[in-house]
Design a protein that fits this description.
- By secondary structure, the chain is an alpha+beta fold.
- It has 2 domains: 2-56, RNA-binding S4 domain (Structural Genomics Hypothetical 15.5 Kd Protein In mrcA-pckA Intergenic Region, Chain A); 68-277, Pseudouridine synthase (2-Layer Sandwich).
- Helix content is 24%, strand content 29%.
- The protein is built from 9 helices and 16 strands.
- It has helices at 11-19, 23-31, 68-71, 97-105, 130-138, 140-143, 200-208, 226-229, 260-269, and strands at 2-4, 9-10, 35-37, 40-42, 48-49, 54-56, 72-75, 79-84, 111-112, 121-127, 144-154, 161-165, 174-182, 186-193, 236-244, 251-255.
- The strands form 3 sheets. Strands 7, 8, 9, 10, 11, 12, 13, 14, 15 and 16 form a 10-stranded mixed β-sheet that branches. Strands 1-6-3-4 form a 4-stranded antiparallel β-sheet, with no helix packed on it. A two-stranded antiparallel ribbon has the order 2-5.
- A hairpin with an 8-residue loop joins strand 12 and strand 13.
- Helix 1 packs across helix 2 (23-31).
- The longest helix is centred in the C-terminal third of the chain and has 10 residues, at 260-269.
- It is globular, with a radius of gyration of 20 Å.
Length: 279
């Protein structure tokens, strides 16, 4: 949606008036970092507008309600693997994926073994009780084998593969980036992690000059393409996790199919979603 400012006001009041919503809801919308003023991402609710400014707001989709049953991609006696939708947090909230699983399985002991960012989709693993959780966490360095992500980034990569060793918050962080495909504006990457720092992939790709499409924190704030402005979330997907069960040493390989929105954006950018297994 595009609006033209016809009087001096602030962003919160303007959106409240145009969308006929409360000022609190207007502020919540601005806080999502999806509002653009003259092609610049703005998240300050009292931002002053001038006559002639152009405001753009996407039709934001909240998919916090989803088909949990069909999102369960792995289960054994110890863990549950879920293909997490974007816009849902992993734990520590009554609307979290962890809580949805507790209700679905009637099991209040279910606990997330690792977290994904709210806007990241893909493979997310949960323990069925606290004993299992503690065992996985205590032995994580020994049982963790491989974690693969897929990302769509700004700019055309000038490499086929690269390894990034750059500390995050004073801790070692290692990211291996493989180029799947590229065009003159974007790159499609497969990424392997050997460490798991907060926002690791997003930070490393941004520092490298290839911020993730839709990243509202580490990506560019001035965008002219409607596709870039209205990409609903960061285009990062937890594609595959390979671990060893500490109770029986069985290998567990969990692969999360691409979400519909991720595949659709790939196609719009000119990439074939089937290429994700090509590297």
């Amino acid at each position: 949606m595009k609006y033209f400012v016809d009087k001096n006001t602030n962003l919160r009041n303007f959106i409240s008036e145009k969308l006929k919503i409360s000022k609190n809801k207007s502020k919540n919308l601005i806080d999502k970092r999806i509002v653009f003023v003259n092609n610049k991402r703005i998240w300050i609710s009292n931002y002053n507008l001038k006559v002639g400014d152009i405001i753009q707001i996407p039709d934001y989709i909240d998919n916090s309600s989803f088909d949990l049953k069909n999102s369960i991609i792995y289960e054994d006696d110890f863990i549950i693997g879920v293909n997490k939708y974007y816009n849902i947090i992993t734990d520590n909230n009554y609307k979290s994926l962890e809580n949805l699983l507790k209700n679905y399985f009637s099991n209040n002991e279910i606990k997330a073994i690792h977290r994904l960012d709210k806007e990241t989709s893909g493979a997310n693993i949960f323990a069925k009780n606290n004993t299992i959780f503690e065992n996985f966490k205590e032995n994580w360095d020994e049982i963790y084998i491989k974690k693969i992500y897929l990302a769509k980034s700004y700019n055309s990569a000038d490499f086929d593969k690269i390894e990034i060793n750059s500390p995050i918050d004073g801790k070692p962080a290692n990211t291996k980036v493989h180029l799947i495909s590229k065009n003159n504006k974007y790159s499609f990457f497969k990424i392997e992690l050997s460490t798991g720092r907060k926002h690791q992939i997003r930070i490393h790709l941004s520092k490298l000059g290839y911020p993730i499409l839709g990243d509202k924190i580490y990506g560019p704030n001035i965008l002219k393409s409607d596709l870039e402005k209205f990409t609903q979330r960061q285009m990062l997907h937890s594609y595959e996790i390979l671990i060893k069960n500490p109770f029986n040493n069985n290998l567990i390989n969990i692969k999360a199919p691409l979400s519909e929105d991720f595949s659709n954006i790939l196609l719009k950018l000119g990439f074939n979603p089937k290429l994700c297994d090509s590297k």
